[in-house]
Design brief:
alpha/beta, Gyrase A, domain 2, Four Helix Bundle (Hemerythrin (Met), subunit A), Rossmann fold, six-stranded mixed beta sheet, 14 helices, about 45% helix, flat
Length: about 450
């Protein structure tokens, strides 16, 4: 990686009150001085702000505030300057162009965060938490991301690695120095309970990780039912606006209507589908095929039945079709006479049109999609898909080690799997030489971050 001086616009381009240009690198102060008119800042204390102008020769480009950050107390641990200028894309782009003419290089996506990682200021889980903070959709997802940025996931992973390392180190001592009588001899029977304990702990983390993913990514939710049961009315009631067209004509919804809503810290990515039935025409057939695909992709089904109409064969067929999915049965139109003729345990009765009992549905959704009561203060929740995938790989390595120990293979054979689990866990926090992994990860960041 080049440790030259880089710059990027750190704020979103567009009409706004302010923009910020971030500059980081060994020559940041000297290069910014070339476009600066104002009091000297290069000798100023760290974390100070200075008033002045950005100039191009004798021409004033903008009236700005300049912030000085001295290493190592900066995001990248390098000298950093941030220029706060007026908003709008032209002013910021002009200042950035001046900096490039003076010798600054345009930063690549995520390069500031990558430098923070490579300089040891943050680990890979903290870098990914920065992305999660930016992308958070609820207070709960923001809190979860901030826990990651504080180093909670790193601490969790390091504990596992330290426990693995203690076992591996003792095996190494037994192999290399068998004459040491005061060192416990680690036979497979002695190692096995320790491996079992690590597996139990890792399974607990992975169970909580499912809730972490729900908080971070939300839940793909399909509203399913035959035509005219009130699916679109339910979507509108949940999001609080009339996004879907509602009529008493069967087949009004012909295409998917999508929306997102957050309550209780859980984001639902809702899809209102066309009523699944035999299509009356080609257009409706396309909508029904999309509805079937939405059902297949959904992580949660809101299955809507009409309280005012007897249960039909079509309803029964759809109930069978969704039986294998995580599902909540909703009895809609309870403001009308009940003619459905069947009781459904654990169903939610409501009126989407009158917006009654929606709170009961929201509570049920939370209970259905979460595996346990959330406790972000006591537990660490891993939510990043890459990190969870590595945890599953580490679990597989530990299970292989357990099988080797149960088969009473030589303890050094068990050690190979334990080392493999230790290395995989290291990839979570960035203890890896895989530059392709790092390049792919940091390319997901925005410019200026």
């Amino acid at each position: 990686m080049k440790y030259d001086t880089i710059a990027a616009i750190a704020t979103a381009l567009g009409e706004s009150a302010l923009n910020i240009i971030r500059i980081s690198g060994p020559d940041a102060f000297e290069l910014v001085k070339k476009i600066w008119r104002g009091p000297r800042f290069d000798k100023a204390p760290s974390h100070t702000i200075h008033y002045g102008h950005v100039v191009d020769g004798d021409t004033v480009i903008d009236e700005v505030l300049l912030s000085v950050f001295r290493p190592p107390r900066t995001f990248t641990t390098e000298p950093v300057v941030e220029i706060s200028c007026h908003g709008g894309p032209f002013v910021a782009s002009t200042i950035l162009e001046l900096l490039v003419r003076c010798g600054v290089r345009l930063a690549e996506k995520g390069e500031f965060t990558e430098r923070a990682f490579l300089h040891g200021r943050i680990d890979l889980t903290q870098a990914e938490s920065i992305v999660d903070i930016i992308a958070s959709r609820s207070r709960l997802s923001l809190e979860l991301a901030n826990k990651g940025l504080d180093g909670r996931v790193r601490t969790l992973v390091e504990r596992f690695r330290n426990d693995l390392l203690a076992i591996v180190a003792q095996i190494e001592v037994n192999i290399d120095y068998p004459e040491y009588d005061d060192v416990e001899q680690l036979t497979t029977s002695v190692v096995l309970p320790r491996i079992d304990a690590l597996i139990v702990r890792l399974l607990e983390v992975l169970t909580r990780a499912r809730d972490g993913q729900v908080i971070r990514e939300g839940v793909k939710t399909a509203i399913i039912g035959r035509p005219n049961v009130g699916k679109s009315s339910l979507l509108n009631a949940l999001i609080g606006e009339d996004k879907a067209i509602v009529t008493d004509i069967h087949g009004t919804t012909r295409d998917l209507v999508e929306a997102s809503v957050t309550f209780g810290g859980i984001t639902l990515h809702l899809v209102d589908t066309a009523g699944i039935r035999e299509a009356a025409d080609k257009v409706e057939k396309i909508g029904i095929e999309k509805a079937r695909q939405a059902l297949a992709d959904a992580e949660l089904i809101l299955f809507v039945l009409d309280n005012n109409v007897p249960l039909s064969e079509e309803d029964e067929r759809l109930l069978d079709l969704t039986a294998h999915k995580k599902r909540i049965v909703i009895i809609n139109k309870i403001d009308l006479e009940s003619k459905i003729g069947r009781h459904f345990d654990d169903s939610i009765p409501l009126s989407a049109l009158n917006k009654t009992h929606l709170d009961a549905l929201q509570t049920r959704i939370r209970e259905t999609v979460l595996t346990s009561d959330l406790n972000l203060g006591e537990h660490t929740y891993v939510s990043n898909a890459r990190q969870i995938a590595r945890l599953h790989q580490a679990l597989a390595a530990l299970e292989e080690a357990r099988r080797s120990a149960q088969a009473r293979l030589p303890v050094d054979m068990v050690e190979l799997d334990l080392k493999h689990a230790w290395a995989i866990l290291g990839e979570i926090i960035g203890d890896t030489q895989d530059t392709a992994l790092l390049d792919a990860l940091f390319s997901r960041f925005c410019l200026g971050k």
